[in-house]
């Protein structure tokens, strides 16, 4: 616990080593009090098992999304059409690796290792954001992903900066700052392309047409079909419903699309003055479920890519461990001048 | 129409608040459209601009091509830390390439490929994306496919040890632009060499497999090594004019550093002869291995499809 309130002295078990251990009910009450005053739960604090499991699932899924999300954009680094765009894209994908790193570290404070989580990912037992199961088919996608996909991610993630689990919330503060850079980079690429040739403008529109509906799906199923939302909100892990965040995203994106000069591919999209919000159509939820269940255009490819990288790196990780533990090849003596073959 | 800047007052750094603001510097990358903006690019007295430009292309192409190879590791490295580190090195080299290509164009515009009138493609991109492989001047060491992690580490070790020695001298170039580029790059290359040296030792002293792979990688790369110290006519001319560096003079210093790493790792120099050229012509003359054309085909495909494109 930290930041907002001072810990209550009588609640500190280390204050009096002879004190009776707290009962489960007392621990639960103390946990609920922390949640109620919107303070943070820290790794060494008591927490309900279900809260820990929910967080491991959510933080791991988030970390996996960052790492799998490197692939659709990483695929265009070699083909970036200018050296400046190549630098921007490579730096962005590198940031995603960094986000994965912070998030796996946050998950490790809950008692699971990066290795365990990676194995859960490559064996298909843990999920990642379905958006990355769509292919990237033109360089305009690098802009659209920044603008719409990172934009939707930010809508989802900004509230997580205030999430109840401390390490996750703090990781999210840093991640959101960088995501906001990425979103601007993406928007700036699209704006630049819209000032270019007719072919470039057509490329931008085609890309927006492809990514609009998958972006709306990033907020998850409608509230009445989202089984985990109520408990996650009660625990302060989640702070807004899927539909609330989706509405916010649509309302913020419409004027940006107008400024850019692109059309959003939804005939039902219209400003509703009475609600003070946009009405809009429903994504194809059957498609979302197909993608979630593994039948998206790139599910197999993304997991296979991650598995290959992980498996092919195994010998490097083993070598680093052997070297660090002093059990490596030829580390028992100073055989610096051997002949390059296996030392004794 | 709602105000896009409206948001909850306690939102952290609301990402949308500045998106429609007309501030040219608001996103990373928007402030480095011209890598030499504001720099005096006058060629020093007594220096042939064409030779200086070609020399810049040699050093720039080395960096560009290796950067392209290293970026292939992105999302493919053995662990996240190495993924980030290899991207970092690729980004540093890409930054060096941009400056050197821009410097080449500023010294001698006749070497920059011509595009249809009105094309907004800047000179650095014309040189990178609209030049054919026979006009690339990089050494062959940087273009061959990356191989496994051990081979990649070995290539970074060899290349950064050599380039660091070269750039430490180049930092005293009579060309103020080259001197400044080199001074900045020295800090980057020191890190690259350190990273690669640590990993080289780790792999040499790690497991039997890591050692086997390291030695195999060293054998693959070794035939390309000597080429880095062979003096091309343009290198000799620019060195004599006080703007370039004769690579033949670097061998002794480079050997000292490399031998330290090899000795600590218990690895001998391979007894393998250098790779011949084609009628004596090698990378610096634009005569490469078969893979460079294919690598450039991928790198250049989008840019070439849009010669009037604005990126």
How does this model look, in words?
The complex is a heterodimer of chains A (344) and B (311). By secondary structure, chain A is mainly alpha-helical. Chain A contains 13 helices and 2 strands. A two-stranded antiparallel ribbon of chain A has the order 1-2. In chain A, a hairpin with a 4-residue loop joins strand 1 (270-272) and strand 2. Chain A starts with 23 loop residues before the first helix and ends in a 20-residue tail after the last helix. The model of chain A is unreliable at 1-11 and 333-344 (pLDDT under 50). Chain B has one domain (47-268, 280-305): Up-down Bundle (Ferritin), CATH 1.20.1260. With 311 residues, chain B is mainly α. In chain B, helix 1 packs antiparallel against helix 2 (80-107). The model of chain B is unreliable at 1-18 and 22-26 (pLDDT under 50). Chains A and B meet through helix 3, helix 4, helix 7, helix 10 and helix 12 of A and helix 1, helix 2, helix 3, helix 5 and helix 6 of B.
List the helices and strands and how they pair.
The complex is a heterodimer of chains A (344) and B (311).
Chain A: H1 24-36, H2 49-68, H3 70-74, H4 83-108, H5 114-122, H6 140-157, H7 166-194, H8 198-217, H9 229-234, H10 242-260, E1 270-272, E2 277-279, H11 285-295, H12 299-312, H13 314-324
Antiparallel strand pairs in A: 1-2
Chain B: H1 49-71, H2 80-107, H3 123-129, H4 149-170, H5 176-204, H6 208-221, H7 233-240, H8 251-265, H9 291-305
Helix pairs in contact in B: 1-2, 1-7, 2-3, 2-5, 4-5, 4-6, 4-8, 5-8
């Amino acid at each position: 616990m930290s930041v907002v309130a001072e810990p209550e002295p009588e609640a500190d078990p280390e204050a009096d080593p002879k004190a009776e251990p707290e009962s489960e009910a007392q621990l639960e009450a103390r946990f609920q009090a922390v949640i109620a005053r919107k303070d943070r739960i820290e790794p060494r604090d008591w927490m309900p098992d279900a809260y820990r499991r929910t967080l491991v699932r959510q933080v791991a899924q988030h970390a996996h999304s960052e790492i799998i999300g490197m692939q659709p954009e990483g695929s265009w680094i070699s083909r970036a059409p200018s050296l400046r765009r190549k630098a921007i894209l490579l730096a962005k994908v590198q940031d995603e690796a960094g986000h994965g790193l912070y998030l796996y570290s946050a998950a490790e404070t809950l008692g699971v290792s990066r290795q365990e989580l990676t194995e859960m990912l490559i064996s298909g037992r843990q999920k990642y954001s379905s958006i990355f199961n769509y292919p990237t088919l033109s360089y305009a996608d690098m802009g659209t992903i920044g603008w719409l996909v990172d934009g939707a991610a930010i809508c989802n993630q900004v509230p997580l900066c205030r999430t109840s689990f401390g390490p996750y919330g703090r990781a999210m503060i840093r991640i959101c700052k960088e995501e906001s850079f990425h979103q601007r980079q993406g928007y700036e690429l699209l704006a630049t392309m819209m000032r270019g040739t007719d072919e470039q403008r057509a490329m931008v529109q085609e890309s927006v047409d492809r990514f609009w509906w998958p972006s709306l799906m990033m907020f998850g199923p409608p509230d009445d079909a989202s089984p985990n939302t109520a408990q996650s909100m009660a625990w302060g892990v989640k702070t807004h419903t899927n539909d609330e965040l989706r509405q916010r995203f649509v309302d913020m994106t419409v004027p940006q699309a107008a400024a850019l000069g692109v059309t959003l591919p939804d005939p039902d999209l219209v400003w509703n003055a009475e609600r003070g919000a946009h009405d809009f159509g429903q994504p194809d939820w059957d498609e979302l479920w197909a993608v979630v269940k593994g039948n998206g255009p790139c599910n197999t490819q993304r997991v296979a890519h991650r598995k290959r990288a992980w498996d092919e790196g195994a010998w490097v990780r083993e070598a680093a461990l052997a070297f660090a533990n002093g059990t490596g090849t030829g580390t028992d003596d100073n055989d610096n001048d051997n002949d390059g073959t296996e030392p004794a | 129409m709602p105000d896009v800047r409206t948001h909850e007052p306690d939102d952290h750094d609301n990402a949308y608040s500045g998106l429609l603001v007309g501030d040219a510097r608001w996103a990373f990358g928007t402030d480095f459209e011209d890598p030499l903006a504001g720099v005096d690019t006058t060629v020093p007295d007594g220096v042939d601009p064409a030779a200086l430009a070609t020399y810049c292309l040699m050093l720039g192409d080395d960096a560009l091509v290796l950067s392209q190879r290293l970026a292939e590791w992105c999302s493919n490295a053995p662990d996240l830390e190495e993924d980030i580190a290899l991207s970092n090195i690729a980004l540093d080299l890409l930054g060096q390439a941009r400056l050197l290509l821009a410097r080449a164009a500023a010294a001698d515009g006749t070497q920059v490929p011509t595009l249809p009138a009105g094309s907004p493609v800047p000179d650095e991109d014309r040189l990178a994306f609209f030049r054919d492989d026979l006009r690339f001047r990089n050494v062959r060491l940087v273009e061959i496919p990356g191989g496994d992690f051990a081979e990649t580490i070995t290539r970074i070790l060899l290349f950064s040890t050599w380039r660091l020695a070269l750039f430490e001298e180049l930092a005293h170039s009579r060309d103020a632009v080259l001197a400044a580029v080199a001074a900045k790059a020295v800090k980057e290359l020191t890190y690259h060499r350190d990273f690669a040296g640590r990993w080289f030792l780790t792999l040499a002293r790690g497991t039997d497999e890591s050692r086997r792979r390291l030695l195999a990688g060293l054998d693959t790369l070794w035939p390309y090594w000597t080429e880095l110290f062979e003096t091309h006519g343009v290198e000799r001319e620019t060195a004599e004019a006080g703007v370039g560096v004769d690579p033949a003079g670097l061998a002794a210093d480079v050997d000292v550093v490399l031998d330290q790493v090899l000795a600590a790792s218990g690895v001998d120099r391979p007894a393998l002869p250098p790779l011949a050229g084609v009628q004596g012509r090698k990378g610096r003359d634009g005569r490469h291995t078969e893979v460079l054309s294919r690598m450039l085909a991928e790198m250049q495909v989008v840019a070439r499809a849009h010669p009037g494109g604005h990126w």
